[in-house]
Amino acid sequence: MPMLLIKGFYDVKGSQPDGDTVHFTADDLEDWRLVGGGLGRAVEHNAVGRAKMRLDAIDALETHYGPNRVHQPLHFAHAARDEMLKWLGFTDVQHGAGETVKATTPASVPGFILTRGSDVHGRCIALAGRGTPPGASGLEIDVDEAVLRTTVNHHLITSGLVYPTLYRSLFTSLRVEMATVTKEARDQGRGLWPSDVTTTGAKITGLASLTDDVVILPKLFRRLVDYLRLGTMPLACFPAYLAGIGDRFSILSTGQRCVGLHRVVETSNGETVKMTHPPEDLLFEDS
């Protein structure tokens, strides 16, 4: 799979990284113009080339979602964030108020990213590596499973600290690799998986259930938080809400193309919600 390689460094002071988002500065500011072949959405960056990067194919528990900055159980949310920063090369990270990093050792760490585009928020969607890059900055390289295994995306999935969230833009061989290591991490009880109730059923009695108790797929968490913000509608109406949002995805095990997560979400007893397929069985369309 050809992906654009950009060389630069990670610098997180003053930012609020979580387990799947981190700031990256390109050594050559012009490299950002090449993302998506120069034809896609522009990557938002400052004058020195610092941009927010979203790690491809993974989703970490939320540390500060939405206008009210709600979070999922922070033990696992922080574990993913801390492991990502440690893997990238930060040996000491000090946090201030509101999840903001106030100091790091070292101040920055060299690395590279591999990308094919950006999202609607102007974030670069990428695989993130450390140290010496496997090619020249500003050029495309072929990314296979061996290269994928050198990235923090793969490391976090292997550690069981994040969920897979697979999109069609990632080539099949790389998606299969991420799905395989997800199953291995779950089967071996690594990280968050012993606590995960995405497919077994999460009891939701209010917002506190989501922020403090249940460990579920972050995409499902975000949809539930947004639903609960609407007022006092019963959980039984949640599938209808999902139908209205219209997330587009395929179920890999059946080949079925779907519109709306209500196709894979069930509620019962007025307080329990679950997904009927594991996250690695869903392939989302790029928005």
Describe the structure.
There is one protein chain. The protein has 287 residues and is an alpha+beta fold. It folds into two domains: 2-187, OB fold (Dihydrolipoamide Acetyltransferase, E2P), CATH 2.40.50.90; 196-284, no CATH class. It contains seven helices and 17 strands. The protein has helices at 74-88, 145-148, 152-159, 172-187, 207-213, 218-228, 238-245; strands at residues 2-10, 21-26, 50-55, 58-59, 92-95, 101-105, 109-118, 124-130, 140-142, 163-164, 166-167, 202-203, 248-251, 256-259, 265-268, 272-275, 282-284. The strands form five sheets. Strands 1-2-3-8-7 form a five-stranded mixed beta barrel. Strand 5 (92-95) and strand 6 (101-105) form a beta hairpin. Helix 3 (152-159) packs parallel to helix 4 (172-187). The longest helix has 16 residues, at 172-187. The relative contact order is 0.15.
Brief descriptors of the model:
287 residues, alpha+beta, OB fold (Dihydrolipoamide Acetyltransferase, E2P), 2 domains, 5-stranded mixed barrel, 4-stranded mixed beta sheet, 7 helices
In short:
By secondary structure, the protein is α+β, with helices and mostly antiparallel strands.
Layout of helices and strands, plus pairs?
Layout lengths: L1 E9 L10 E6 L23 E6 L2 E2 L14 H15 L3 E4 L5 E5 L3 E10 L5 E7 L9 E3 L2 H4 L3 H8 L3 E2 L1 E2 L4 H16 L14 E2 L3 H7 L4 H11 L9 H8 L2 E4 L4 E4 L5 E4 L3 E4 L6 E3 L3
Parallel strand pairs: 3-8, 11-17
Antiparallel strand pairs: 1-2, 1-7, 1-9, 2-3, 4-10, 5-6, 7-8, 12-16, 13-14, 13-17, 15-16
Helix pairs in contact: 3-4
